[in-house]
Amino acid sequence: MAQNCSLRTETNTGPAVAAGQPAALLGIKAVAELLDCSVRHVHRLRDAGKMPQPVRLGSLVEWRRAEIEQWVASGCPNCRRSGR
After folding, report:
1. CATH 1.10.357 fits 11-84, yes or no
2. Which residues, in sequence order, are CB contacts of 31 under 8 Å at separation 6+?
3. Residues 83, 48: contact at Cβ < 8 Å?
4. What pTM, to 2 d.p., does this model score?
5. How far, in Å, CA of 41 to CA of 18, rounded?
6. Hey, where are the domains in the chain?
7. What are the C-alpha distances in Å from 37 to residues 18, 20, 29, 31, 81?
8. Where would I find the beta strands (DSSP E) of 36-77?
9. How far apart are CA 7 and CA 56, in angstroms?
10. Maximum distance among all alpha carbons in the chain?
11. Minimal CA–CA distance to 5: which of 52, 53, 58, 59?
């Protein structure tokens, strides 16, 4: 089944982000907005190993924006490294 991958072009300008600068780390809601899909779909992609793994900072789970953009640019290949 082919995945439909696209990026939204708006930048994330939350309070911790300088004006005009995209965030280096993105929360799940920001990733969902960037991919133009639901938060639940991001959970499914992550759980299935179909997207880059998030960075865990305690209980906080975020993704590196550059990794997400590179993943989309390369056609959204599966990212699971081990067979399961």
Report:
1. no
2. 42, 63, 68
3. no
4. 0.73
5. 29
6. 11-84
7. 25, 23, 9, 9, 24
8. 55-57, 60-64
9. 23
10. 42
11. 52
* The pair of three-digit structure tokens given for residue 65, joined into one six-digit string: 């924006």
Q: What is the CA radius of gyration of the chain?
A: 13
Q: What is the DSSP letter of 48?
A: T
- CA gap 45, 52 in Å, rounded: 9
The dihedral formed by the CA atoms of 11, 42, 38 and 24, expressed in degrees to the nearest 10: -10
Please tell me what DSSP assigns to residue 29.
H
Span 5-54, pLDDT tens digits: 767 655 444 444 556 677 799 999 999 999 999 999 999 999 999 999 99
CB neighbours of residue 45 within 10 Å: 22
